[in-house]
Design goal:
acyltransferase; about 350 residues; binds 5'-O-[(R)-(carboxyoxy)(hydroxy)phosphoryl]adenosine; binds zinc ion; cytoplasm
């Protein structure tokens, strides 16, 4: 509908430079430039390299998004930008660019939370999010369960990882299996040839004594160590490492815990909708297992298409569009980038 707000979103919190454009819940453009290849040989994102890559990519990516959507900056109703959490230098590039465009084109600016944007992006695929919903955010930097009463007003954290994030566990396990960075996609692929029940890896924080204090929290560091010990034992014995079985069994342990805790959170709060976001939501096993287990409990699960699960500009535009539609006031032009922005802050 032409009277819905036309919102442009800028994402630079990690290694993807993203510019997306939406009208209401309709995705018009999603331009992306990734510096992932420049980080691969370091086995993780190097902040300085990411910042420099954003600086080089931001203007061309902006142009591509506007071209794709067939609009000019003058047509845009509001500019949304990831203000945090993320890498400080990387965030600064996006925030500075957004301010520049906002001043030059005289547009309101919304500094938004990257994690809330991972939830909001699902509306581009599945329409308005029924609230309350439980959101599970699983990315390279975060793993959280949230209660979403009103995404534009804030979310209530229910639990989070007490050590590694789910994506981080995929990246670290990939590394010890000799698979490339980022580790999620190659583990996902290798696991398809393996048996998820081959090795009984631990399920963190699921024992009765842990559930008392950490019912909705996650822990993946023990799992990562268990995989490392298992692989080392094989190598010491001079036996080949069955990469596909290790990948599948590790992935099964992660997905088992994630889905079990997400469903428990839905049931505890009487919520019938689970939305999963963040890079790990692209995982094929997680998507299938969530669907199967939620169906058994009468819970509707919503997961964005894999391309929208990993970082992109469309998710920021989607959240911006929500905020504009809800009549939330824009941010001040001196809005800061906040690398540690709390989950409870949706916009600044
Ligand atoms: O959301 P995202 O793009 O960036 C952050 O905000 O962190 O998430 C990146 C993380 C990486 O750890 C990557 O390994 C993981 O998402 N990931 C996956 C898959 N695709 C990306 N993990 C498991 N399976 C996948 N298919
Ligand atoms: Zn992310």
């Amino acid at each position: 509908m032409a009277d819905e707000p036309l919102v442009l979103g800028i994402e630079t919190s990690c290694d993807e430079t993203g510019v997306g454009i939406v009208r209401g819940h309709t995705l018009l453009a999603d331009a992306l430039a990734s510096s992932v290849d420049q980080h691969a040989r370091f086995g993780g994102v190097v902040p300085e390299v990411a910042s420099r890559a954003h600086l080089e990519a931001i203007v061309p990516t902006m142009r591509r998004a506007l071209d794709q959507a067939g609009v000019t900056i003058a047509d845009i109703d509001a500019i949304a930008v990831t203000a945090g959490p993320g890498l400080a230098g990387a965030l600064l590039v996006g925030v500075a660019a957004a301010k520049g465009y906002a001043v030059a084109a005289e547009k309101p600016i919304y500094g938004v939370n990257h994690l809330a944007a991972h939830v909001a992006v699902d509306t581009l695929e599945h329409g308005p999010l029924p609230e309350p919903a439980v959101a599970m955010l699983v990315s390279g930097g975060h793993s959280s369960l949230l209660l979403v009463d009103d995404l534009t007003a804030g979310v209530t954290p229910l639990g989070a990882t007490i050590d590694d994030a789910a994506g981080e566990a995929f990246d670290k396990v990939a590394r010890l299996l000799g698979l490339p960075f980022p580790g999620g996609p190659p583990i996902d692929r290798a696991a398809r040839e393996g048996d998820g029940a081959a090795i009984a890896f631990p399920r963190g924080l699921t024992a009765p004594k842990d559930l008392a204090a950490h019912r909705f929290d996650f822990s993946f560091s023990g799992l990562k160590t268990a995989v490392a010990r298992w692989v080392e034992a094989r190598e010491r014995a001079g036996e080949p490492v069955p990469v596909a079985d290790v990948a599948a069994s590790f992935q099964e342990a992660v997905c088992d815990v994630l889905t079990a805790k997400a469903i428990d959170a839905c049931r505890q709060h009487g919520v019938e909708t689970l939305v999963i976001g963040g890079g790990v939501a692209a995982n094929s096993r997680l998507r299938v297992l969530a669907e199967q287990r939620c169906a058994r409990h009468g819970i509707t699960v919503r997961v964005p298409p894999p391309r929208l699960c990993t970082d992109n500009g469309a998710m920021v535009a989607a959240l911006g569009s929500h905020l504009v539609a809800a009549g939330i006031a824009p941010s001040r032009l001196d809005l800061p980038a906040d690398s540690a922005m709390p989950l409870t802050t949706v916009s600044v």
